[in-house]
């Protein structure tokens, strides 16, 4: 039966996606960029919308939430998966509201009066059946996909507004967004880049070799020299893994030191992050924030005799508070960290913050 | 002076210089002062220099005039300053020649007038100070408490790599040193004090510093057996350049032990005084060692001390007695300044360690390790977090020593500092040198640790012996630093090393700094053998030390 085939095919795809998520997270850094993860998640969600059995918007949202919970559980540190799910849920809500004819503006205003008076009416909101809902939702998801494909280019287009000639720019580790940003600026301007190598994975080395191919003057420094050279740096441009709801960052380890050094020398810190990295989490340092990988990277097994008597830590992420950040550059333009909460309310619905 | 005028009309420039010398001699004779032995020596040396210049016929005439101008204001120096004296006009010459190149050529008449005016003022000032105050305009840093220090100091060679004139001067100086030490058996093929060449592409901000490769040791060019350089010095230099001896205390102690050996093997040649000849003998050794690896501040202070001790040997002292005295001096220096100092510092520092402390240390400082071991013996309950950084990974050595003692340790890399710092109650740091403006010069990464500790409000304590205090001032880590072998940054992960062929890539540079400076507002306390002082009291300690000596 074609229906059953489609279903098994769909569940197969979901399973393979989940196993890939589990596998790639345990390697050194991210073997696939966040952009690819976001795109694959959205494509998968589109497939679910097209192929799963659902009658009305409510059921669709339930299915997506269920699958979404499984996906985020597979790799909790990969927040783009959860972000895309929340975006799609918001799309579904919007399409539903449009089909019903009510404008979106009134729904979003959360005044205290509304909360008290109209609390019950949102419950049965999504049970109505609309024939064109499926098509509309799929179309909206397609728009989302095109937006995702263009994020890196949108960000790089803004490069010339921020980099002047003969600048010294500092960055840490490897970020594909920042790489594209700098390469775009290098087409018209001459500047110098200092890359901190970011031990123990030393992804800065790859970044440096890739920048050199575009004839950008690059210098690789070890992490210990970040403060020593900071006095000659004009700007610090970094990428990040996640942008948190308060405007802070969850970035590769060493970024907090870099941000503190930049603050001490009053050097502007610019974060290049596309909008799909924005996550409605507030930082919680105890359990969920940090991710650790094998301490073998830090203290290898060749140091066997002391290894058993020593604790070695290898955290992957760092929290950077919003006070240290000057500017966010994303595909919708430049923003101050104090504006991030507002952007978030445009992208996600408050009820979706907990999947 | 009509005679001199007539000769100058010829227009030959080196004639005017001889002229000046004759004028000087005439001047001195007119004042009734006898030319002292030192002045005769100095004039002899200058004549030699001129003969060489005339033969080679090198340098624009301006250079000669500048040299004369430079040597005239420094009339008489004690003979023991001869090695310093030889070098002093050279860097001054270098910097002035650079300046001279920019000035437009003055007319001869103007220069003559200037020279005459200067000689007049010199004459009056010489009459003013009749007593043996010979130390005024020299570049010696010693000063009586009433006088201010002279401003003009020697710019060390190792921060003038981008100045080709300075490099030429250094090459000539090294050649001179090997010629002076040898007898008749001149080895034409081998170089005695080699000039080490730089390796790899240097980052433009650091083009004024040397960058050597560990794979080409300086001893490759030395002939075997080395006749000018004592073999234990060759061994020491090799150990420095390969990184076998590292750490400022270790390097100083090794240097002093080697000097003891050198003094033991030394024998005074006939017609020479031990106090002067031994100092001359030491100069090529020191040049060789600084070619292997730039001297540290502690080594510089130790060398100054030894030279002073040698020059204070009275001339009637017998050779064996003198040698014994020098060796005893060196032993007492090591004992007082290094061993006993670390005991005193441990005693002060242990007061600052309380039970339940979590102490953070960085890299491998012998002094900090000593303190922690002592505190552990005194039954203090604490645990240690060792922070380490690529590419040296010295923290592993510290980790081994502490774990062997039985102290509980945690180990992280410096990029995980923000993660680990909320657990820490105190930070103990070692220092390479303490500068006169309160900045702490230490292994690269120390300033970062102090910065982040300040952000988390964790107290930072620096432990440093007083013999590492130096009179230099520095505000950033660029002007005077050391560049290590850039190939150390290459790492192979998963079978791939991205930077392997970095030399072939045109726009790629690797920077491997060794030191950095920490501003005094990040440091809460400095523990020295004189007590616990704030960072800003370093010049006070220096002043007290100078008065004592």
From TrEMBL, chain A:
Provide any one GO MF term from the record: translation initiation factor activity
Compartment(s) of residence = Cytoplasm, Cytosol
Keywords, in A-Z order: Cytoplasm, Initiation factor, Protein biosynthesis
The leader peptide range reads: none
Q: Which GO terms describe its biological process?
A: animal organ development; central nervous system development
Question: Pfam families, alphabetically?
Answer: IF-2B
Major localization class: cytoplasm
GO cellular-component term (any) = eukaryotic translation initiation factor 2B complex
Extract the coiled-coil ranges from the record. none
Organism's domain of life? Answer: Eukaryota
Subunit structure as annotated in this protein's UniProt entry:
Component of the translation initiation factor 2B (eIF2B) complex which is a heterodecamer of two sets of five different subunits: alpha, beta, gamma, delta and epsilon. Subunits alpha, beta and delta comprise a regulatory subcomplex and subunits epsilon and gamma comprise a catalytic subcomplex. Within the complex, the hexameric regulatory complex resides at the center, with the two heterodimeric catalytic subcomplexes bound on opposite sides.
Sum up the protein's function in the record's words: Acts as a component of the translation initiation factor 2B (eIF2B) complex, which catalyzes the exchange of GDP for GTP on eukaryotic initiation factor 2 (eIF2) gamma subunit. Its guanine nucleotide exchange factor activity is repressed when bound to eIF2 complex phosphorylated on the alpha subunit, thereby limiting the amount of methionyl-initiator methionine tRNA available to the ribosome and consequently global translation is repressed.
* The family this protein is said to belong to: Belongs to the eIF-2B alpha/beta/delta subunits family.
Protein name listed in UniProt: Translation initiation factor eIF2B subunit beta
UniProtKB/TrEMBL annotation, chain B:
Instruction: Kindly list the GO CC terms recorded for this protein.
Output: cytosol; eukaryotic translation initiation factor 2B complex
Q: Which GO terms describe its molecular function?
A: guanyl-nucleotide exchange factor activity; translation initiation factor activity
On the tree of life, the source organism's domain of life is Eukaryota
Q: Which UniProt keywords apply?
A: Cytoplasm, Initiation factor, Protein biosynthesis
Query: Is RNA-binding there in the keyword field?
Result: no
Q: What does this protein do?
A: Acts as a component of the translation initiation factor 2B (eIF2B) complex, which catalyzes the exchange of GDP for GTP on eukaryotic initiation factor 2 (eIF2) gamma subunit. Its guanine nucleotide exchange factor activity is repressed when bound to eIF2 complex phosphorylated on the alpha subunit, thereby limiting the amount of methionyl-initiator methionine tRNA available to the ribosome and consequently global translation is repressed.
Protein name according to UniProt: Translation initiation factor eIF2B subunit delta
Q: Which organism is it from?
A: Cyprinus carpio carpio
């Amino acid at each position: 039966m074609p229906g059953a085939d489609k279903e098994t095919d769909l569940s197969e795809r979901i399973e393979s996606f989940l196993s890939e998520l589990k596998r790639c997270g345990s390697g050194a850094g991210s073997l696939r960029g966040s952009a690819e993860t976001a795109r694959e998640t959205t494509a998968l969600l589109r497939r679910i919308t097209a192929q799963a059995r659902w009658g009305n918007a409510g059921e669709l949202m339930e299915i997506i939430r269920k699958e979404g919970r499984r996906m985020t559980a597979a790799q909790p540190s990969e927040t783009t998966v959860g972000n895309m799910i929340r975006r799609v849920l918001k799309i579904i809500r919007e399409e539903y509201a449009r089909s019903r004819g009510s404008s979106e503006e009134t729904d979003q205003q959360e005044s205290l009066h509304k909360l008290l008076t109209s609390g019950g009416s949102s419950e049965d909101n999504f049970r109505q059946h609309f024939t064109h809902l499926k098509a509309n939702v799929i179309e909206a998801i397609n728009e989302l996909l095109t937006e995702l494909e263009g994020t890196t280019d949108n960000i790089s287009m803004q490069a010339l507004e921020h980099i002047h000639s003969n600048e010294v720019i500092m960055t840490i580790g490897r970020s594909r967004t920042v790489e594209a940003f700098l390469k775009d600026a290098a087409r018209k301007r001459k500047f110098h880049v200092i890359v901190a190598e970011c031990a123990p994975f030393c992804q800065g080395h790859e970044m440096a070799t890739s920048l050199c191919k575009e004839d950008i003057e690059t210098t690789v420094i070890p992490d210990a020299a970040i403060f020593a050279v900071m006095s000659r740096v004009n700007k610090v441009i970094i990428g990040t893994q996640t942008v948190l709801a308060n405007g802070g960052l969850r970035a590769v380890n060493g970024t907090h030191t870099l941000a503190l050094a930049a603050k001490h020398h009053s050097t502007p810190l610019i974060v290049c992050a596309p909008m799909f990295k924005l996550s409605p989490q507030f930082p919680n340092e105890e359990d969920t924030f940090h991710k650790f990988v094998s301490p073998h990277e830090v203290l290898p097994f060749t140091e066997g005799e002391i290894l058993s008597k020593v604790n070695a830590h290898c955290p992957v992420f760092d929290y950077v508070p919003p006070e240290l950040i000057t500017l966010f550059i994303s595909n919708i333009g430049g923003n101050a960290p104090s504006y991030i909460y507002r952007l978030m309310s445009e992208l996600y619905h408050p009820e979706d913050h907990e999947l | 002076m009509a005679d001199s005028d007539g000769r100058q009309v010829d227009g030959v420039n080196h004639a005017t210089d001889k002229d000046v010398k004759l004028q000087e001699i005439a001047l001195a004779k007119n004042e009734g002062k006898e030319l002292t032995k030192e002045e005769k020596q100095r004039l002899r040396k200058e004549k030699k220099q001129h003969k060489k210049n005339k033969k080679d016929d090198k340098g624009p005439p301006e250079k000669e005039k500048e040299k004369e101008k430079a040597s005239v204001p420094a009339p008489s120096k004690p003979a023991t300053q001869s090695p310093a004296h030889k070098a002093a006009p050279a860097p001054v010459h270098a910097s002035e020649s650079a300046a001279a190149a920019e000035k437009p050529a003055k007319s001869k008449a103007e220069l003559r007038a200037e020279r005459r005016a200067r000689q007049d003022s010199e004459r009056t000032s010489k009459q003013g100070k009749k007593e043996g105050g010979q130390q005024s305009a020299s570049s010696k840093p010693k000063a009586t408490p009433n006088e201010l220090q002279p401003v003009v100091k020697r710019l060390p060679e190792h921060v003038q790599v981008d100045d080709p004139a300075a490099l030429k001067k250094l090459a000539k100086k090294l050649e001179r040193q090997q010629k002076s030490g040898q007898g008749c058996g001149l080895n034409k093929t081998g170089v005695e004090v080699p000039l080490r060449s730089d390796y790899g592409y240097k980052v433009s901000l650091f083009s004024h510093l040397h960058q050597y490769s560990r794979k080409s040791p300086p001893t490759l060019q030395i002939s075997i057996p080395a006749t000018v350089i004592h073999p234990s010095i060759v061994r020491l230099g090799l150990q420095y350049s390969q990184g076998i001896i590292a750490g400022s205390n270790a390097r100083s102690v090794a240097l002093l032990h080697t000097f003891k050996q050198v003094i033991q093997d030394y024998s005074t040649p006939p017609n020479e005084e031990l106090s002067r000849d031994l100092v001359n003998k030491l100069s090529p050794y020191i040049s060789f060692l600084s070619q292997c690896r730039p001297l540290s501040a502690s080594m510089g202070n130790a060398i100054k001390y030894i030279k002073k001790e040698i020059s204070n040997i009275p001339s009637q002292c017998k050779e064996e007695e003198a040698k014994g005295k020098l060796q005893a001096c060196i032993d007492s220096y090591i004992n007082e300044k290094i061993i006993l100092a670390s005991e005193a510092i441990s005693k002060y520092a242990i007061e600052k360690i309380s039970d339940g402390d979590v102490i953070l240390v960085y890299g491998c400082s012998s002094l900090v390790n000593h303190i922690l071991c002592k505190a552990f013996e005194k039954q203090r309950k604490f645990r240690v977090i060792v922070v380490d950084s690529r590419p040296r990974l010295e923290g592993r050595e510290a980790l081994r020593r502490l774990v062997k003692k039985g102290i509980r340790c945690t180990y992280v890399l410096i990029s995980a500092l923000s993660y680990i710092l909320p657990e820490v109650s105190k930070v103990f740091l070692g220092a390479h040198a303490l500068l006169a403006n309160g900045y702490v010069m230490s292994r690269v990464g120390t300033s970062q640790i102090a910065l982040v500790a300040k952000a988390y409000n964790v107290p930072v304590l620096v432990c440093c012996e007083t013999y590492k205090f130096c009179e230099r001032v520095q505000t950033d880590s660029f002007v005077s630093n050391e560049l290590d072998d850039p190939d150390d940054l290459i790492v192979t992960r998963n079978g791939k090393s991205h930077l392997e062929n970095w030399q072939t890539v045109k726009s790629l540079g690797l920077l491997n700094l060794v030191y950095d400076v920490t501003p005094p507002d990040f440091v809460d306390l400095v523990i020295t053998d004189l007590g616990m002082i704030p960072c800003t009291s370093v010049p006070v300690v220096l002043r007290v030390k100078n008065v004592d000596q």
